[in-house]
């Protein structure tokens, strides 16, 4: 396979932000899946890691949005209008997820009268006050969206692999 020209690749900043976000999302999912039941001695550590990763996902997402606003992505490689539309919708869904999901997690904590705290830092913050009536709804939304995005993230990865191994185009390589 030939070298990809700079005009056809994502910028180094976009690539770095993509993979930083991917690792943080994976860490947030890993931590919430292995945290154990209530009362488990490891649960506070894994819950803290989940909250740290989620907060950093939001920070990375905000930086990504700012980066994207200032740096035009490379041209779409899809010949098909349908594939281009699906790719744009998938990217929009991923951006909504990496912005909304951490905010819903923070709201879940705040509505239970808990600030967002980051282990190891003497720092905490709130984006909302306590509200026991809204907390179950927001918590359910956070969990539902988290479960839905296993599917969307999986589709994103499968699409990249399909482009690489079936279409044999540069889609995956230009994000490496």
TrEMBL record:
Gene Ontology terms for molecular function: electron transfer activity; heme binding; metal ion binding
Phylogenetic classification of the source organism: Bacteria, Pseudomonadati, Pseudomonadota, Betaproteobacteria, Burkholderiales
GO biological process: one example: respiratory electron transport chain
Tagged with keyword Acyltransferase: no
Primary location group: membrane
Provenance organism: Bordetella hinzii
Membrane-spanning parts: 12-32, 52-69, 81-104, 144-166
Membrane topology: Multi-pass membrane protein
Protein name, entry field: Cytochrome b
Cofactor(s) demanded: heme b
Domain called Cytochrome b561 bacterial/Ni-hydrogenase: residue spans: 9-176
């Amino acid at each position: 396979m030939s070298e990809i020209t700079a005009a056809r690749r994502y910028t180094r900043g976009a690539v770095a932000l993509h993979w930083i976000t991917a690792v943080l999302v994976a860490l947030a999912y890993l931590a919430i899946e292995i945290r154990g039941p209530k009362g488990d001695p490891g649960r506070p550590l894994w819950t803290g890691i989940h909250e740290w990763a989620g907060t950093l996902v939001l920070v990375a997402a905000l930086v990504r949005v700012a980066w994207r606003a200032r740096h035009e992505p490379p041209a779409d490689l899809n010949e098909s209008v349908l594939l281009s539309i699906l790719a744009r919708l998938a990217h929009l869904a991923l951006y909504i997820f990496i912005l909304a999901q951490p905010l819903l997690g923070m709201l879940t904590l705040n509505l239970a009268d808990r600030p967002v705290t980051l282990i190891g830092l003497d720092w905490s913050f709130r984006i909302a006050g306590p509200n026991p009536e809204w907390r179950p709804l927001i918590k359910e939304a956070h969990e539902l969206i988290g479960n839905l995005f296993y599917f969307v993230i999986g589709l994103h990865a499968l699409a990249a692999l399909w482009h690489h191994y079936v279409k044999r185009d540069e889609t995956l390589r230009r994000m490496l």
